[in-house]
Amino acid sequence: MPAPWRAPWAIIFATTLRLGTPLSELVVLITAREWSQDYEWYVHYPIALKAGIAKDIADAIADGRRPTGMSADEEIVYDFTAELQKNKRVSDPTFNRAEQRFGKKGVVDMTGISGYYTFLAMQLNMARYEFSGAGSRLSRFPN
């Protein structure tokens, strides 16, 4: 389903969002997990590990569990993104904690990164994109 007008917009949008590589990649992993998006996971899992996200943290996310042993910043990003994905909104305490730590730009960036990768996950899932990479697939969450 080609839609050429979307590609430039998506690329520009993605390149303007910078929370910092490790935390940005954490947002991507949480989003990919929530959407059971194998391709996003396959691409970003090694990037996240290389950027400094601990394997135990990434693997817990893959299993659908809240990771233990996260840094304070990782906990804020995890709570914000997971809450946004699951509830389609963020509670005042979660928002305030994120804004206090990362500022308004950081909160907007977290939301933008999650939104961008949600957009991609929706497109890939809708198109029934057949992931052909090596490695295990994410388990599917119940509907």
Explain what you see.
Helix 5 packs across helix 6 (92-126). By secondary structure, the chain is mostly helical. It has one domain (20-126): AhpD-like, CATH 1.20.1290.10. 68% of the residues lie in helices and 0% in strands. The longest helix is centred in the C-terminal third of the chain and has 35 residues, at 92-126. The mean pLDDT is 86.
Number of domains: 1
Instruction: Briefly note the structural class of the backbone.
Output: mainly alpha
In N-to-C order, the SSE pattern is: HHHHHH
Helix count, DSSP H or I runs of 4 or more residues: 6
CATH architecture: Up-down Bundle
Unreliable spans: none
CATH T-level fold name: AhpD-like
Sum up the overall morphology in one term: globular
Summarize model confidence as the mean pLDDT.
86
Radius of gyration from CA coordinates: 15 Å
Structural descriptors:
single chain, 143 residues, mainly alpha, AhpD-like, 68% helix
In short:
The protein is mainly alpha-helical and 143 residues long.
